[in-house]
Amino acid sequence: MRGVASALLVLLSPFLLGLVVGREHRLGRPPSVVRVGALLDLGSPGWKASWASMSLALDDFNASHPGGSTVELHIADCKDDEITAASAAIHLLKDIKVQAIIGPETSTQARFIIDLGNRTNVPILSYSATSPYLSAKQYFVRTALNDVSQVPAIASLIQYFSWRQVVPIHEDSDFGRGIIPYLEDALLNVEAHIPYQSIIPSVPTDDQIEAELNKLMTMQTRVFVVHMSPKIAARLFMLAHDAGMLAEGYAWIVTDSVGNVFSTLDQNTISSMQGVLGVRPYVVQSDKLLNFDARFHSRYRQQNPGAPDPAKPIIFQYWAYDTAWAIAMALKKAGPLTLGFQIPSLKNSNSSNDLSMLGVSQDGARLIDAIRGTRFQGISGEFVLVDGQRQASVFEIFNVIGNSYQSAGFWTPKFGLRKNLIISSGPHAKVGLNTVIWPGGSGQPRGWEWPVAGKKLKIAVPVKPYNRFVNAGKNTATGNYDVTGYCIDIFDAVMQEMPYAVPYDYVPVTDPNMVTSMTMSYSEMCRQVSLKKYDAMVGDTTIIINRSLYVDFTLPYTESGVQMVVPMKENWSKNLWVFLKPIDPNLWAAILAVFLFTGFVIWLVERKDSRYFGGSTGKQLVNTAYFNFQALISVPKDPKVKKWLSKFALINWILLAWLLEKLYSASLTSMMTVRQLQPTVADLNQLINNGDYIGYQSGSFVRDLLKSLKVDEHKMRDYSPDQYADALKKGSWNGGVAAMFDEIPYLKVFMSTYCRNHTVVGRVYKTGGFGFVFPKGSPLVADVSRAILKVTEGDRIVSIERKWFGDEVACNSQANIIEPGSVITWSSLRGVFFITIGLWIAAGLIYATIWFFQRGQDGEQIQQAVAELAIERVHGDGDENIIWRIGGDSHLLIRLHSHLPPLPLPPSAQEARSGSEAESARISGDSALEEGRARTSGDSSLEESRDGGEPMTPPAGEPNGVLSLLRVDSQSQNQEIGGLRER
Predict the structure, then answer these.
(1) CB neighbour list of residue 341: distance below 8 Å, 6 or more residues apart
(2) What DSSP element (H or E) covers 719?
(3) Of the candidates 675, 678, 680, 689, which has an alpha carbon nearest to the alpha carbon of residue 728?
(4) Which partner for 457 in 81, 292, 513, 535 could form a disulfide, CB atoms 3.0-4.6 Å apart?
């Protein structure tokens, strides 16, 4: 079957070809020709030049691509108005039945013609309609650059020169207005804005242009961006030059609407544009471009015989060439267009000129897709369409100098401003622009000046009761206000630091509704500034978010924040138990434990060998406690402690007591001699919970701040700064307040006078500090802020503060508050206690070891004790009876009686005397004992008895006044150990 079909197709192919050829002949054109229309103003040399470019492109394409469809270009004269252009387009669509239209020239003409293309499915390609209002969709393709593409380059220039305000000058048309919204957004990104738009009629008179220029001269802004057709721009610059607006201090930037045709402008126009900066697309030089110029001029002369030679081709001629080439390439890509037009029925129209008679191209969809997908290297650069329009690559920044221009640099989407196109990112990268010659031959304009007919700035100043920050007092002699204060001096100093003279006058502002001639609220004054009633506001104005919505603030020149000041109350110095306060209770407990333990250790070690720690239980406790307390005051001089272990424990206790005594004395001295004060309130929550009244400064935003912090409006009272002290003294329940909220600068002034009995407490509620107020977008804000930095970072601010606040630094009432760190605590001395405890443990272990090995040496201890008693008695006086129990096993009691008459010793005692004296001399080393006698104030006797019994009588023949040592053994037999008698 396939073979049969193939054979039939071969037999019928001549017949089918004849039908196609016959149909093409019936339509009146060769089968390989595609008609393309072009809308040109043939009365303008520039558009005649575009015709030469398009025809040259089609010839070049046909020569390089033989065969296939041939493009036949049909030119329609659209004049310079929209109606003629629309009529010419209808003619091309209805009569010529073109498959595509190149044009129209202007954006205003293109709007209607684009609708015709969408209705007839005929592609419309424009290489000169650049307005962003024209959306490249459906059957419209923009082979030129959208005006929006140059906006980032213009914004980069504004940012590079640090200009903050720009006035666009544009014509009143879709072309002129289309760029403005995009320019506004781009300028906002570089912290600049548009304070005013200068709109020139699309068909203006010289008087209309001059009137607009005079209006611009009365404004402060001196940076202008011109976006309009070349004809109107030429007239604008001529008139601006005559008005003196191309002089020093001005900056002019022209968009590519003028930059693209700059070479076609006459010399008078160029002379009036000296110093102007321009932006235009950059065309890379190539061999193809260099060969184009000569052939272009030849074709132009051929098409326009007798006409003057054309100017050098501009970018529009390059784009026209690439556009014609793109159509030819798309037709070759799409293949033969054989479907033609679908013509509507004549029954639907009563006139041959009715738009309903336009046919609809059946090949349009295929052709527009082929055009959008076309990509090649044209003479103007790479031809590629994204979303139906050409994309930007590089813009050249040029500077008008003399009879021509010079390149100031380039802008690319990736690298921004560069001095040349040799892109590098190293340390030698040429960022920025080359030297620019400005209007008047001056240096870089600052972007704004005082207007020619301008007046002095009106600076609003609040009128309020006297304070050190701002004071506008009325002079009774002159009737005028004398404006003084810290804020006023700061503003005057800032104005002196400005890079240019700024004339101004202070205007005190009062509230007309108040009898006392007081100022209106600060927020209302800021609104007056935003309405341009005043040029600025100077005073103690706090930067807060609500005000910044409608005015601009400079940088702050004071400390920021809101805090509260409260009265102080007496603390410890009048307290009954103040002497206990220097030491923490836990430390008192530790000291008592050390005291008791030290006494226990000394008693345990000395109780067997020392008379002082013997006796009854009560006597032992009293003596031990008294001895420890005596050691606490001073080191004991009496040799009551004999054992080295007890001496070791005593030394630890004395060292610890010495350290505690020094610290205690210092802390107690501080508490008793310095006024100890504490704030009556700790924070805002305590005020709210107590239901206390809270004060704030009259007219201050602090009222709104307190309301936002959940403070009851009925619990707030307003005062002037000089009433703060009296209101705090009265207190919350006596017609005053418990705390006063205000900004930190005001509280510093208050505390410099009243800090003895007041203190600043609580958290800091952050604010922006004091700043100067200007209308939104004022060019002064940036310069004034920089001048504020110069003043506040220099020495001038010091002299101003000394003038208004004195040399004394505000006293710190917090120094009068005893902090927890001034009390001696356990944690601060626990290291000392740990060392003491460690030494005690070591001493206890040594004592236990010694006691274990010396349990059987009681005899020697008894002899030592008796000798000790004798030595002590030698230095005693008075009448006293001493009973002393010696040893735990001997049950030996000693009783001394004083004031007995001296008696000679009997012979029986002579022998004992020598032995006793020798033993006593060995123990005590006393010279009196070495001679065998004890010098006392009276005679003594020793009596022996069992525990709990009566004293026993000395043996027969032993007179009173004899010191005898008698032992009671386990069988209750009395035995004389020895005796001494005083001579």
Answers:
(1) 97, 120, 359, 360, 361, 362
(2) strand 716-719
(3) 680
(4) 535
